[in-house]
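Sorry to interrupt, but I need a hand with the structure work. I would like you to pick a protein and set down its sequence and fold. Please put the record directly below this note.
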Amino acid sequence: MSEYSSIRRGAIATIMAVSMASPALAGGKPLACYQQVHQPAVYKTVHQQVVVRPGRVVHETIPARYGKITEQVLIEPERVIARTIPAVTRTVHEKVLVRAKSIGWEWRRIHGVKTLCKVVHPAKYATRARTVVVQSARTVHERIPARYGHRSRTVIVQPARTIARQVPPVIKTVARSVEVRPASSGWVQVSGRRRCH
């Protein structure tokens, strides 16, 4: 605003003040007329982003994960044992000479008379049973294979751990009204003399 305009406005304000304050001067010939003008404030809506909740780091504990595995286990190891096989026998019957053929003397009674006679004694045989070994007793070594079984057990698949997770901030856009130009008032000259009547 120039210095001239300031002086002009001040003069107009003084004139208006004097004319209102001095009713005795009313009714004179108007030279210029002025009207008071009010300019309302001008606003506009602006959108602004505001942080509702700031970002942060959250530490999260993830529990361990477990699983079951089945594995083969040795129940009894391989071993060698000694086993005795008894002898195999059978019973055989054979004819054996009990007494060989012989010649001897013996008393006999012939016609009532005791007589010494020379006689032949035949061979005498008998049947005798005996046990014979068909196969002798022996010791054999037998290999017994190992015995295995299955066992289930629980193992850790993944141990417990703590991870840091970044949580982003929560931002929202809010609208607010801001004053672009404040309210003002001033005096405006009415153009033309007729408007003063």
